[in-house]
Amino acid sequence: MADRPMLERLVKLNDVWLSRKDVLHGVQRYEVSTKKIRIHTDCGEVITVNNSRRSASARALRNSKYRKVCKHCKLSDERINRFVAKDFYDPGITYVEATVKKSAPKKVMKKGAGSTAVTSAGSSTAQQTAAANSTVQQAATTENNAVQPQTSASAPAAASVSVPATTPIQPTAKENVTVSANEKYSPSQRKRLEALLVSDEIDLDSPDLPPFEELEAELVSKRKAELVDIYENSREHMLAKLERDISAFLISKGFIEIKSSILIPEEYIIKMGIDKDVELSKQVFRTDDGKCLRPMLAPVLYNYLHRFGKVMPDPLKIFEIGPCYRKESDGSSHLEEFTMVNFCQMGEGCTRENLVQLIDEFLTYLGISYEIEGDECMVYGATVDVMHGDLELSSAVVGPVPMDMDWGVDKPWIGAGFGLERLLKAKYNFKNIKRGSRSEFYYNGIYTNL
Ligand SMILES: [Zn+2]
Prior knowledge:
Helix content: 25-40%
Largest sheet: 7 strands, mixed
Radius of gyration: 30 Å
Oligomer: single chain
CATH superfamily of the largest domain: Bira Bifunctional Protein, Domain 2
Number of helices: 13
Number of domains: 4
Order of helices and strands: HEEEEHEHHHHHHEEHHEHEEHEEEEHEE
Structural class: alpha+beta
Bound molecules: zinc ion
CATH class of the largest domain: Alpha Beta
């Protein structure tokens, strides 16, 4: 296979390492992970780099030039000569440097495309084509998120596309950014600043803001200090804490806590009438064994109302808090993985007044302002919408509703469901709901990539 070798192979063959400053070190040992290689030099340095065939390190090792030899590594002349002479390469292998214009369009090998049906704009030999082809497959499998599939008029019909071997597969948006005279920050700088802002603490359109580097540094140090403060003091994740707070509140109000399965039978969804609501039905994550990730807590709570209704004294008060899943496309207020709390009461005292009173105590306890609107709902009958500005916090219901029959529930009931991430968005004035969600990018609303 004609191809430039991975960095790993070059390290193994050369048995030496070239530092950034072209200092030649001996390689004592190295470890390889899926993407990285970690080199331990004879002098005790540890370097971790991408195990790529295109990196500067790989290029340096393919060449034979070095500036000086590390005196701590005590390299023998033989090892140095080996590196310089490069007589260890397999003569059957041709190492190709395909020369292609940097601006050449990026194309991606489609799945299942044969390795022979490839054209490469800048290469003329079969080996070069093969090398490019291999690189394409590599790129297509490892960086498929970074490249946009394109079709080319010049490519043969059989789904055959190629990528120039030396073109870095990277988003080029950054390079194309132009800063107009009246805009202080470029789009990418603006994106970075927005990520660093927790809410709307700074108006990025304000005319008297410092230069990007200055503002970025200021925000980064602020966010770092906040994270350290959390670590030294509370150590609580806001979503987990909210769940605990809600739990404590509802238990104190006489509700019993339930934890049920996140994977539920798909028939529950049908029983909830969701199959008739085309949009909601499309949002359900189904598994291949007739189950789905629960898009709501209601079905199992219905079963609990039925079962505990026969056991517990009247009124019965139950609640559950936990993850729910819906395929969502609308980003800033919706999550595909979110946390719901549902509380409901069955039997005595199930009036609209009591429901509104309970919601008021609940949101007052959490320190969240709200307005109440009446509305009709697809799944239930009489609903009470709880709003925070334009953000719907809850759709609460005063039963009974006709669906109760299907679940064996024959007493009046009241209930409300809240999305915890929405409660956090409302409470902390987050611009994006992801700030308070399960995430590796945000911790308690703070961007983690600092
Ligand atoms: Zn050294």
